[in-house]
């Protein structure tokens, strides 16, 4: 929440708690659900239901690190996981060696779903 306050932002949706994982190298260049190609250096995430373009704050509950991200893909489709992160975000959150980590996902700016 401190990162939101630093940026003058307020939560725009309900928090979710669960496990995060991150995209493996085999996803580089593949088309995401929004039609764009996946870039491991991006701040892209996959979420099952939040509209594309939604800005979220992801916080690693084990170490307190947070990062802003943009929903650009759908997934993850593994039970208990609530978000897939780009490798850049996984590195920023300090979870690359773990592979999977407990996180809080908080929508900050919810994009409007296209008609």
Radius of gyration: 13 Å
Fourth CATH level, the homologous superfamily: RlpA-like domain
- Total count of helical runs of at least 4 residues: 2
Q: Segments where pLDDT lies below 50 for 5+ residues?
A: none
Secondary structure class reads: mainly beta
**CATH domain class:** Mainly Beta
Order of strands, main sheet, comes to 1-5-2-4-3-6
Strand content: 25-35%
Q: Would you identify the CATH architecture?
A: Beta Barrel
Could you say which overall geometry the principal axes of the C-alpha atoms support?
A: globular
Task: Report a brief summary of the structure.
This protein is mainly beta and 115 residues long. It is 10% helix and 33% strand.
Please give a handful of descriptors for the protein shown.
115 residues, mainly beta, Barwin-like endoglucanases, six-stranded mixed β-barrel, Endolytic peptidoglycan transglycosylase RlpA
Describe the structure.
Helix content is 10%, strand content 33%. The chain is mainly β. The chain has one domain (2-109): RlpA-like domain (Barwin-like endoglucanases), CATH 2.40.40. The longest helix has 7 residues, at 87-93. The radius of gyration is 13 Å and the shape is globular. Belongs to the RlpA family. This is Endolytic peptidoglycan transglycosylase RlpA. Pfam families: DPBB_1.
């Amino acid at each position: 929440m401190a990162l939101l306050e630093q940026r003058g932002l307020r939560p725009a949706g309900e928090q979710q708690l669960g496990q995060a994982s991150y995209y493996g190298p085999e996803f580089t260049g593949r088309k995401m659900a929004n039609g764009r190609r996946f870039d491991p250096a991006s701040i892209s995430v996959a979420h099952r239901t939040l509209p594309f373009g939604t800005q979220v704050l992801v916080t690693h509950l084990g170490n307190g690190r947070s990062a802003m991200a943009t929903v650009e893909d759908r997934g993850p489709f593994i039970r208990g996981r609530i978000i897939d992160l780009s490798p850049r975000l996984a590195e920023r959150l300090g979870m690359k060696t773990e592979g999977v980590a407990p996180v809080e996902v908080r929508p900050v700016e919810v994009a409007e779903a296209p008609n």
